[in-house]
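Hello Y.,

Per our agreement to keep a running log of every chain we model this quarter, I'm adding this entry. I've kept the format consistent with earlier entries: sequence first, then predicted structure.
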Amino acid sequence: PSLRSMHQRGTLSSSSSTSSNSMTTIKKGSKNEQQSYAKIAAIVAILIIAAVGFYATTGGDYYHAPKVAQVRSSSKVVDTTDDDVSMVEGKAAPAAGEGRLITFELGALKDGATGTVTIQTHPAWAPIGVAQFHELVDSGFFDGCRFFRVLPNFMVQFGISGDPDVQKKWRGKVLKDDPVLSSNKRGTLTFATSGPNSRTSQMFINTNTKGNKFLDGQGFAPIGEVISGMEYVDLINDEYKEKPGQGKIQNQGNKYLEAEFPRLSHIVSSKSS
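Predicted structure for the entry above:
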């Protein structure tokens, strides 16, 4: 009950005890309030310390395919405060039907296997995203990229350059969202995000045998699909799950990954046709 209601009940009981009862209630209330404020202040201090520690560790860069109840996944944030960040709104987006075949040669798969994966892009699905993906491939961005986050029967994530200088350049090329016109079925390729209008270079391939349809409503727009070599996607090494730190990859590149996670599967080379 509130201080006011407690005081009113004291007034209804006895006129001789009204003053003392009210004083006692107010004193108790004041002490409780002080204790509550102290607890809140302590909690706020802990949260501030945790936030500072997180930023210092990750550099503020953390993209994701989103959290999902049935898959253990981390919440992630991205820093887009750099002066060189610019919003790309559909630059030279190809017309519908002008998709490409993108080939990834994969290495360090399970049991030492290698394999070729072919992706068909679909500008009609997501023209802004497709244009960025084509540009990334044409620049050789994906060559040497590690699959740094692999969650079985969910997705495999890649798209942080092994060269920090190259990665810094692409951090500034932030895309506006495409509407979701196709579902995140098994084998589809989609940009990872940190929220609305935040796509840059990180991507994931859906591996769930039943698809990840729940991602559709969260704004994840597929840009293409694996048309051959999905068996090699399934062989991507998943022993490290999501242990590699994205901030450290951003800052140190493959030097960090080779030292700490030497068996990560990777893209040996990519080409477009």
